[in-house]
Structure formats: C-alpha cells, structure tokens
Amino acid sequence: MRQRCGRVLHGKLFEDDENSKAKIGNDAIAFTLYKKEVAMWETLSVSGVDKEMMQRIREKSILQAQERAKEAAEAKAAARREDQKYALNVMMKIEEEERKKIEDMKENERLKATKELEAWKECQRKAEEQKRIQREEKFCEQGKQTEEERNKLKHKSLTRIAASRNLAAKGRNSENIFLEKLKQDSIPAPRSVGSIKINFTPRVFPTALRESQVAEEEEWLHKQAEARRALNTDIPELSDLKEEEKNPEWLKDKGNKLFAKENYLAAINAYNLAIRLNNKIPLLYLNRAACHLKLKNLHKAIEDSSKALELLTPPVADNANGRMKAYIRRGTAFCQLELYIEGLQDYEAALKIDPSNKIVQNDAEKIRKIIQGTELKS
C-alpha cells in the first residue's frame, strides 16, 4: 500500500547539491540531505503548515527542479557543441596542413620540371651555337680555299700572258722599231687585282653530288620539317598539362633519362604521351621499342620497330643509324620469339647499312648457326 506524504523541513538545504540522494530498500527510503547551516534542528519539520501551503511548496520545488534540469541539459548541449566545434577545427587544421603539404609537393615538382626544361633549353641552345660556329668555320675554310685557288689561276694566267709577250718580241726583232712600238702600245694593260667573296650554300648531307640521292635527301628533309610541325594539342585529356609537358622533344629526353635509370614503365609512359602529341617522330617509336624489349613485350617491340622503319623513309645517309637500330631491335624480338629466319633477315638488312659492324656480324652468325642446328635436328 502506497502512502503519499510531505514535510516542510525545519532548516534550509542545499538545493542543487549533487551529493543529495535517496536510497530505497527494506521497505524504507533513506534520504541523504545536506544542510546550508550546520546546526541541530529542534524538530524535523515546521509545524503549522496546511495542505494548501504544502501544495505550493511542492509545485515550487518541481519548477525549480525542472529549471535546474533544463539548465543542465542546455549546459550539456553547449558543451557538446563546443566539443564538436573543437573536433571540427582540429579536422580542418589537419586538412589544411595536408592540403598545404600537397601544394608544396606540387610546387616542388613544378620547379623541378621547370628547372629540367630550362636545362634542356640551355643544352639545345649550346648545341645550336656549336653547330653555328662549326658552319661558320667551315664556310671560312671553304672561302680561304677558293681564294687560294683563284689566286693560283690568276698567277698562271699572268705567267702565260708574259710568256706570250716575250715570244712575240723575239719574233719581231727584225721589224721596224716604230711599228713594234705602235703594236706594243695597242696592247691593254693588265687589269687591277681585286678579291671577290663567295658564300656557298651549305649542304646538309656530306656526300659528293655525283654520289648523293638528291631527290631522296630532299624528301627526307621535307618529311622531317613536316613532322616537327605535326603537333596535336587538341586532345581533351591533355588540356591540364603544363607547357613543357606538351613538348614531344622534352618528353623524349625525359623518357631517355628514365630509360637510363632502368625505369622502363615510366619511360614508356613518357614516350606514349609524346607520340600522342606528335606521331610522326620515328625516334619515339624506336626508343619505346627498346623499352618493350627490356620488359619482354616482344610483339609491341616488333610493332614499334616496324613503325619506326615506316617513318624512316626514304632511306638516306642521315637516317641510316636509326634504320639499323630498328632492324636490330626487331630482329632481336623475332629471335626471342624463336622466329630465327625473320630475325636473321633483319640482321642482314642492318649489315647492308653498316657492313663493318663486328657486333652485328657476330650476332648474325650465331643466328645462322641456330637455324642450321634446327634444320639438322629436323
């Protein structure tokens, strides 16, 4: 049976003391309350409190408890918001540091690429300057030789004229001296000596005119000029590349450096991008074929070598070295696929370009022995 009771205590208690508590057990409730003033109470409750006053006191206590609960909830919510704000600030700070780290890495890579590009441009400039100096020295040397030959011819001509005059004078000794004087006066005086500078048109190929293939050489030069102009920059996925990354020559040099470091996959990526920008440069296919050989991508090595040979036409002295490398790399790929006859054909084609190459001669001889051994076994 439940009973409802209420009392107004004699003294005042701490209203918000968290240590106040109530314990239920053994059919009883034990309250632990703390006084505001430490003193002995004469009675537990105040006498003379009617029911109506008790009701008001109870309602007031309930309202105060609700206010305290509301304030506690608001304080807890505020603390939670502060914790969330702090966590968000920490997260934003971490993200900002990470973003700055990435930006620094990008900036370092950009500076590195720019430095490499400038170094490459400087090397190109020095190479062009060296070529220009060599051309000028060659032209000066040719001019000196021409001047010497002209002076020799002039000296011979004057010598012949003097000899002719001496012979004519001896033959006319018996003639009238006045007539001889008149004839001698009618001979004009020799022309004054002067020098004429001749600038010869430089020739790209060093072979003599009677031995060169002028039409083929001009066609090759025309193809090279067209290849340098055939730059494709309209590829959508390449729009975010930097300017130096859109230069096929720079990418080719980058691939060559990666190949030297034995990073063949990265080198292939550089050559791939260069070929997408300009697919008319035979050296790009030739170098990529070397990478495929290192990675044992033999069919791709054959394809790239064949494409390089297709672009290295017409066959002239200027592209002989590239054609020989293409034949050797394709022949090597054929041999590794055990297609020795096809491989030997490519090695023999390379020997036609450079018959004195001992290494290619030895390799071709080894392939012949393998073919002969296979035929004997069969």
From TrEMBL:
SUPFAM superfamilies: TPR-like (SSF48452). Keywords: Coiled coil, TPR repeat. GO terms for biological process: determination of left/right symmetry; epithelial cilium movement involved in extracellular fluid movement; heart development; inner dynein arm assembly; outer dynein arm assembly. One of its GO terms (molecular function) is nuclear estrogen receptor binding. Residues 62-114 form a coiled coil. SMART domains: TPR (SM00028). TPR repeats lie at residues 324-357. It comes from the Eukaryota. Transmembrane segments: none annotated. PROSITE patterns: TPR (PS50005). The keyword Ribonucleoprotein does not apply. InterPro entries: Dynein_assembly_factor_4, TPR-like_helical_dom_sf, TPR_rpt. The keyword 4Fe-4S does not apply. One of its GO terms (cellular component) is extracellular region. This is Dynein assembly factor 4, axonemal isoform X4. It comes from Zalophus californianus (California sealion).
